[in-house]
Every structure is written in C-alpha cells, then in structure tokens.
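Entry under discussion copied across for reference:
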Amino acid sequence: MFLKMVQLIHTISKGDFKEAVKKIRELVDNVNYDDLCEITKNIGMIPENIEHDSSEEKMYSKASDIILARCFRELGLAARALDERADSADILAESIRGYNYSLVADAKCFRLSRTAKNQKDFKVSNLSDWRGSENEYAVLVAPYFQYPQTKSQIYSKALEHNVCLLTWEHLSLLLKYNVKETEIFSLESLWNASQMMARDKKLAYANAQMCFLPKMDELIAKKIGIDMPRYHQDLEKYKTFILYRGRCEIGFWEKEIEKIKEYSREKAIEELIAAKKLNEKIGAIKGYLSKLKTQE
C-alpha cells in the first residue's frame, strides 16, 4: 500500500495541489488497519524516486501529515491535518474521552541519503510556539534513527518547552499493539513526557540526548504493556527493515547511474546544465537587470 501511495503521488503531484491532497486524503482515510500500519512503518523514509525539492516532495510531506492524523485517530483521539498555513502546526488532535486536552503535531520525514541534520530541521521551538495558549501539548514525530545521535540542542529545547519527541517507530508499535485511549486509559502522560523528564533532577540537560529517547522507549513500552527486552526486540526489527529499505534506495541510484552511463554527449551536457540550474540562474540575473533598467 505504501508503494501504491507513492505511485499516486507521482501521478497527481503535477496537477492542482488541493485536488491532489483530496485524493491522498481519500486513500489514507480508507485504507484498512494493516495497510495503515505498513504505511506508517515506511513513511518516515522519503523514497529516493521522489525528486528533491519538487511538487512530489511537497505532496509526500502533506501525505505524512494526513497519515499522522489518521494514526492519532486510531489511538482514540479526534485529529485532522490542517490546511496549508504559514507559521502553524500541521496536525491538531484532541482527547474525546473526557481528559480535556488537545495537542498540535508536526510530521518529519527524511531521506536515507540525507546526512547532515541540525536543530532547524526539527523546529522544536517553532512547534512550541504553534501550540499557542489553547493547546496543552506539542508533539514532533520523526524517524527514530534520524534523530541526532550525538549532542543536540533539540533535546534540551524539547525539555525546556515541553515538546514530546515521538517517532514513527513508536507510532508503529502503538498501532501494532492496538493501543487506544479510553475512558479508563489515558495517553496524556505520553504527550507530557518532556515535562515529566524535566522535573527529574537526575536527568541533566547537558546529557539530554543520552536520556530522551531511552525514556520515551520506557514510556511507550509501559503504554503498550510489554517489558523492555520485548520492546527492544521489536525495535530491532525496525532496524532490519531500514536496512532492507536502504538496499532498495541504493538499487534505485545504481540504476540511475547505469542510465547516465548510456547518455550521449549531448544528453549528458543537457542534463548537467539542468542539474546545475544554469538557465534559471541566468534568467534570475536578467530579471534583476531588467528591473534596474526600468528604474533609470
């Protein structure tokens, strides 16, 4: 189903954006539970056949918002992906089981080929601001193994601003074990995890990157109702799956290399000029100079 969704993105991304979003929403809202689990397992890794900085990539990002909203609904919340707006969160969710809280959320997806990531890629401070005064919690969802593995300010900022750093793998596990908020089972402590961690004096801010994800792992395992050895077995399966996806993405680029090797000289030159966007750069300079002339 994930591949079907990616193919749909390829097909519709060149048309009207709102109409394309509607088609993606229809697909995601109507897939069965198992298909949703499969999509959620994959969505954090942008396929290499989605062109970088393209209408396809923008549509893929929107699809991840719609999928995250569906995941929240399966967890027992009311949730929806918001329309395109600058300076706002992508998803709004709220408890419908009498716990009287709401949250904003942001979905992040990265390519396996994307190496350097910094705190701006995660927008922790922005997400805290987007919560406003009317929402209690802010949740960031990104791929587990794409969070910084070394020291990063995103962890201390998450603790400081009470932003929950969740992962697509966490969501996949919650779905796998059919976890739902009910009148007698609340997920609120999960969204409030950062505040609880910040209160723990044993967790030094300087070592936040050492404690944050392990603490989140413990919370997820507790919500699911499994012990940590079982949890780590499940998490290890996601590593194996990522290795498989990685081989698929490598295969895509190896095929591209073979295609390039078959280019004629003229085709190679044409592609190089397009890749460097040389004509666009010339056009931008000409446009600037044209404006200067009109000011004379």
Summary: The chain has one domain: 2-227. The longest strand covers residues 102-107. Residues 10 and 56 are 6 Å apart (CA to CA).
